[in-house]
């Protein structure tokens, strides 16, 4: 499955080729052969389709379940009726369903779709960064881009943009601008001559996270109490139902990012083994790192602008999926994308239903799930993190 040294950009092999041989898996510093439950499994087309088919079906089932649950329970039959009416453009539903239709179509459905989008992108970026950094503890937030996006939104709210009519369109723009600033600063801090060392990227991300977090806390402390409370809730991670035009635009943007990441699955397989094997096979590792770094930063910045600081998804989902389906990124990346979307849909449903009428920030749910898993990685699987 690896490209030859003379043809690094040759077309991808068929899915009937083996994923990663045991010898190559053992040579990697983080992803060893013992991480795979089926060490002799070959990624065939039928296996790929079977895994993705099961995950797609499970995604639909969980989405329907999330649409049912809330402060008002909606039966599955009513959901299907209202969705069909919305698709065909009819409005002949009974009066008893009109209020339910508003709850479903204007609040619950866009929120569930947003949760799936955010979770999918965070998981996909986590897969890419873990292969790039060769460490299962890597997370989209390790770059500091999420803190940059949060700082951009905090500055916008401080100057009153969050109370204007254009808040829905300007706040994401401000968050995206903050992520771009963070990306530029990290890149300049990490760049050394014409190379981009991985340890420098990690160190720059940690430093920038600390600086941006301090600035966000300072801005929050000088805000008016009402704004400060809203900002703290947003920083803990929250999903609010967006308008459909905004949701469509965000979906198109993130879909492009996912497709571009998907084009690098073969290179990610090689980078997971180390940079020296990749260079010996003719891979331009520096250019690949820059591209994946840029895509990860831009996608994370866009997601944080809409959802706030939702952590651990980019770390726990790729690692858990890798234990089940193996380390071949041709399957790992799309499978983690679907599992991440499902995970955040369920977590958001728990956040808005467990303590009705109060609502817990979804970032709290993901942290409660990810924290113990993080400890598990550090204590019981520390031999895999070297």
Features:
single chain; 386 residues; mainly alpha; ABC transporter involved in vitamin B12 uptake, BtuC; 15 helices
Characterise this structure.
This protein has 386 residues and is mainly α. The protein has one domain (111-384): Orthogonal Bundle (ABC transporter involved in vitamin B12 uptake, BtuC). It contains 15 helices and no strands. It has helices at 22-27, 45-68, 76-88, 95-133, 145-158, 167-190, 198-221, 225-235, 244-262, 265-271, 275-280, 285-307, 313-325, 329-353, 362-379. Helix 2 (45-68) runs parallel beside helix 14 and helix 3 crosses helix 4 (95-133). Residues 1-40 have low confidence and may be disordered.
Q: Secondary-structure blueprint of this entry?
A:
Layout: H1 22-27, H2 45-68, H3 76-88, H4 95-133, H5 145-158, H6 167-190, H7 198-221, H8 225-235, H9 244-262, H10 265-271, H11 275-280, H12 285-307, H13 313-325, H14 329-353, H15 362-379
Helix pairs in contact: 2-14, 3-4, 4-9, 4-12, 4-13, 4-14, 5-6, 5-7, 5-12, 6-7, 6-12, 9-12, 13-14, 14-15
CATH class: Mainly Alpha
**Per DSSP, what share of the residues sits in E-state strands of 2 or more residues?**
under 5%
Mean pLDDT: 78
Total number of helical segments?
15
Catalogue the unreliable spans: 1-40
> In which range does the helix fraction lie?
55-70%
Terminal Cα span: 26 Å
How many beta-strand runs? 0
